[in-house]
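subagent[fold] <- orchestrator: predict structure for attached chain, return tokens only, no commentary.
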Amino acid sequence: MLGQLSVPKNLCLLRLSAIGDVCHAVAMVQNIQRQWPETKITWVIGKIEASLLSGMDGVEFVIFDKRAGLKGYQDLRQQLKGRKFDVLLHMQVALRASLASLCIPAKVKIGFDSRRAKEGQWLFCNKKIAPQEQPHVLDGFMGFAKALGLAVSAPLWEMPLTDSDVLWASDKLSAENRAGKPIAIICPAASKAERNWHAEGYSQTAEYLYERGFKVVICGGPTTMEKLLAEAIISRSGFSQGEDAIQNLVGQTSLKQLLAVLKLGHLVIAPDTGPAHMAVTVGTPVVGLYAHSNPKRTGPYLYPQYVVSAYEPAIQLQYKKNSAQLAWGTRAKGKDLMMQISITQVKKTLDRLITENYADLV
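subagent[fold] -> orchestrator:
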């Protein structure tokens, strides 16, 4: 903790990616804003992530194009030319981010503690946050607020959704849901295919949700992998046509429109992927499907009770130790780990979520 630090006039945050992580970072930023409303905040961020957060109250976004190579750093330096920040919160350990930090003039540069300051991040900082024992990523980020001497409470999000985004989502969903059923959203694809559950599992889940009285919607990005997975899920389901058909919005939404869809949904099913964390920020319960990463570290923050995980058995099989005995964040390896998640486990978890949240609705 930096006890001698006075309230800064301006503060810069460096967190470029990814979607889930910037969602966690929003909670930290808004925690700062509630206690230091006069502090001007600048956030150096990736282009895709900025498209989700644009319009966020009280935050100036400076986009760093990580694909531009050397020019990206030159552009960042030019954008911040003549600026001087009281504090930089260096919240990304990748070397690319540390090199970007050299383009950000700040008196105090705060990074992770020694154990977590990987890829030489400690070389680019003159202060560090306090060590933490096995924190969730979001709690790790809150360590930066603590380092500023601020109180940390349960996370609250005020995501920058416009009326037009919400209206678009409402129109899109109601057009194929004239019966007004509660909406279950499947976001089946992670950025890496090995973190995806199988199409058969998702299709059986969709059928089960239909039987429970839900309208099922599939969401995702525009990649070929995501489109093919959605098509496979729909083709395997027993209701691919008519009013009760699965609604396919894969590749049809911007990130803000997707956020609005998630907000209007009643529950979300997803692997370890950005939309799962986006759903958390708008208060929609999430069933998280995990096998490669520890859900205690990267799971849907407000809904750990609804995680279905094959992670711990995989870790014990591969390392002959449990996760608490290994470096925090150790990943399980293997292309077929997600196949260890059973449809029975998912159905039981859905039953519990529905009972605890929507007993009067279905």
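orchestrator: received. Logging for downstream: The chain has a mean pLDDT of 96. Residues 19-35 form the longest helix (17 residues).
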